[in-house]
Amino acid sequence: MKLLLVLFAITVFASCGNSLSSTSDSDFSIAMTLDTAQFNTLHKKYKETALFHRRFKHSDIDSLIKIHAQKNVLLIEQIGKSVQGRSIYELTYGEGDIKVMLWSQMHGDEPTATMALFDLFNYLEGKDDGSSGIRDLLKNKLRIHFIPMLNPDGAEIYNRRNAQSIDLNRDARAGQTVEGTLLKARAKAIVPQYGFNLHDQSIYYNVPDTKNPVTISLLAPAYNEEREINDVRIGAMQLIVGMNEILQQYIPDAVAKYDDTYTPRGFGDNFQSWGASTVLIESGGLKGDPEKQEIRRLNFIIILNALIQIAEGSYKKYEAADYEDIPFNASLLHDVVIRNLSVGTDSIALKTDIAIRRGETTVGRDYFVRGRVEDIGDLSESIGYEEVDAEGLHFIAGKVSANVVNDISSLTMEQAYALLKQGFMAIPVKAVGATRESGLHGLPVHLFTQKQFFTTSSIDLGGTTNFYLGDLYGNLKYAVFNGYLIDLSKNINDLIIKNRVH
């Protein structure tokens, strides 16, 4: 089903790049639903530029909230502090009777929706953009309570759990943490009719029977062990059907449902049992979007669209039964899948598939990765963000250069790539360099200050991933460098590599 277009049988926007400034508020006087071009334009206008990567800190949020407080549109209140004393805020918009709660980043390493909420705050404070009718609708019908970054201590070190090593989303029942107790207290005080539980999920989920990553996962959580469906849960299902409708226009066949097993300790399940139609939004993976900026935009769109539909009551037009048509997450996705690679010895031949995943380690506001072998064998059903059929190719170990460079800045991207194409995967370095104290770099070669460095000598489960794919004559075709698949016949400029000095 297509979204309802604005009035007068004309399309206000011819493309995503059109500006809302050419429209008048009367364009939204009857039908408040926006089309994809309008959503795109609004997000481009109101995207919070201070947040542009996943590892922002509490200080960034604190500074932005102080700016919003000066505008006197959102009611801002510090409602508590984290274990380590960081402020937790609630921002409220609207004067209506319908109460909505949204909370984000209760897991400190799940920041995508927090960025989207600050985009939404900018929108709610906006004017002269042709959509004041929508803001008036939300203001008059709803009272929206936002709690961004519920777990600031976890966010500070990009960690899932709080400073006491407790998963806040498993503390709804016991209330052992100050942050979990705070969220529960706000729920009891506000008594919302609707709730939005905002998270990030693994980037390795795929939509069943496709090679597509699950970019957005949705769920109407169960409120009891039997996973029964009552009017409250039906409302959440209807909202999700509406979200899926618009998401299919942006990311066809990239939406799934999260596992609906009842979790008595979980906040989403408990909000549902407390009488709030609660929607779980999980931000997953999208190829070419490592910092989840596109997925952030999708969060902005589906949250704003859902708020409009709640205010209008128009979400009730959707059939809850259509919720069941959304498939559940599958888990067959990897960063790289290599098929039909010869890795055997002279005495024992072996041609097999290899799946690789990259794990992230946070360093301040940045990170480096370590690629590892996730699986070996018949991986016909497995999927890779990057895939290669290595039929006719063989495993070739990488070499370590005997030359020594002074520091990171002594080696250019072009020089590093030239070394990689010559079969060298590592080179010794005298020092990290004064300008790179963290030791992080984006070069396609390992730099090491230790006495020696070992590249991958054989394919081992859980082992490192630094080797080549080449033909029988030793001609190198691909480098598998720290979990990245690099086609050595192509330019490397577009590849983002997250590495560190060893």
Description:
- With 502 residues, this protein is an alpha/beta fold.
- The chain has ten helices and 21 strands.
- The strands form five sheets. It has an eight-stranded mixed sheet with strand order 1-2-4-3-5-8-6-7, with helices on both faces. Strands 11-10-9-12 form a four-stranded mixed sheet, with no helix packed on it.
- Strand 19 (476-481) and strand 20 (484-487) form a beta hairpin.
- Helix 7 (231-250) packs across helix 9 (293-312).
- The longest helix is centred in the middle third of the chain and has 20 residues, at 231-250.
- It is globular, with a radius of gyration of 25 Å.
- The N and C termini lie far apart (53 Å).
- The model is unreliable at 1-31 (pLDDT under 50).
Helix share bin: 10-25%
Uncertain runs:
1-31
**Strand line-up of the largest beta sheet:** 1-2-4-3-5-8-6-7
Q: Tally the beta strands.
A: 21
Individual helix count: 10
Give the overall shape, derived from the CA principal axes. globular
Quote the average pLDDT. Answer: 92
Helix/strand-derived class? alpha/beta
Strand content: 15-25%
Largest sheet: 8 strands, mixed
The CA-CA distance between the termini, in Å, is: 53 Å
Radius of gyration: 25 Å
Properties at a glance:
502 residues; alpha/beta; 24% helix
SSE arrangement:
Blueprint: H1 36-46, H2 58-69, E1 75-81, E2 87-93, E3 98-104, H3 112-124, H4 132-141, E4 142-147, H5 152-156, H6 178-190, E5 194-200, E6 216-219, H7 231-250, E7 255-257, H8 267-273, E8 277-283, H9 293-312, E9 333-342, E10 351-363, E11 366-377, E12 383-389, E13 394-397, E14 399-400, H10 413-421, E15 424-428, E16 440-441, E17 446-448, E18 466-470, E19 476-481, E20 484-487, E21 499-500
Helix pairs in contact: 1-3, 3-9, 4-9, 7-9
